[in-house]
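The material for today's practical consists of a large collection of protein records. An example says more than a description, so a record of this kind follows:
***
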Amino acid sequence: MRKISRILIKIFVGRDKIRPPQILVLGFAVIIFFGAMVLSLPISSVSGDRTDLLTALFTATSAVCVTGLVVVDTGTYWSNFGQGVILFLIQIGGLGFMTMTTLIFLIAGKRITIKERILIKDSLSSNTLEGVVRFVKYILAFTFLAELAGAIVLAFTFIPLYGGVKGVALSIFHSVSAFCNAGFDLVGGFRSLTPFVNNISLNLTVIILIILGGLGFSVVNDVFKIKKFKRLNFHSKIVLSISAVLIITAFIIFGILESGNLDTVKDLPLHGKFLSTLFLAVTPRTAGFNTVDMASLTMGSLVFVIFLMFIGGSPGSTAGGVKTTTFGVLLYTLISVLRGRKETEVFGRTISADTVRRALSIIMIGMGLLFIDVLILTFTEDAGLVEIVFEAVSAFGTVGLSMGITPQLSSVGRVMIMITMFAGRVGPLTIAFAISEVQSDMEAGKYRYPEGKVIV
């Protein structure tokens, strides 16, 4: 508490002394708070009554953290105004508040300072300050074009069903929600996209938007510019290889495990089986939409979904989780160890020991947070262990998939899930740096302890 107090004092008294991780954490927190205040107003609900603060705060946290877990049905509880607020929060959360701040600065013609460029660099997980503002312009243009294209395709499904105005609104909402990997839907009845399990254009559009939003803007930019895999930068190769392996592996595993499940895919037509299996392979990577009932999956599928949710998307994207690169670094480290290599090697390059340590730290912090989360939820919630673990990991990976227990969460449970969603979106290591006293490189290099030997 003492460290948190010092941070708050710095925010209001000495802003120049705040480190970038602290500003990023506080930026997301402030957006969530103001979003909750607006959602609690009578105008935001269909009934015209004020929404209790905890429900509004949970919804705002889920939207800004692009998760999709909800305690009230988005399509029927919130008014058009409330749904618009949620959409706005999703867009800010998906792009990052520094990207949106840069957009405002550009529109206002304000000069972007070095400090602000550093914040933008950190928020985008970039390695250099060079061209960072130009990169933000690319992100904004690509995002709005992708969401527009997605909305146009989705309109061919929604307009015939809901009419012109509502059909267009649903198309825009679901396109933004899919690209930002948010998983919020307006179908109603907590059904997500299950009524459209056999719809080819809707399924493929949402899948493409999820993948584009979850790869990371730098990777997408690299692919569009270079096109050939061998010439891509090292980071892009790691992201694309791990993402492809996870999607293909998940498609095969779910295809095998769910092929005989009457409650999911067995009775679907051939194209429906393919679409639902592919959708199930993509959506746990922090997207949150589902076209089959998650509670009806086989136990093996549920375990693998939890694994995919923990990994999440890629750095510098709209996705959460520990990230594909973190998993990839540890996977390639294991392969290198088994091959008898002293260093982590892949694609003709060596991954630094510092990167490996950071990857391991992220995994350990994430697992530690989830252990505490699950431990508390087992005391506060009337649900099975599988449902609780699924809910906690879904929150941490900012996925939004649920086995149906979210609306029944207790007040303590909602608070724990909110904390988990926030940590998953901002990043466990970013939060750790924000609340700890991090030494500078100069201070850290003043001395070195003698090496100790340990058997593993």
Remarks:
- The beta strands are 344-346, 349-351.
- The chain has a mean pLDDT of 86.
- Residues 18-436 form one domain.
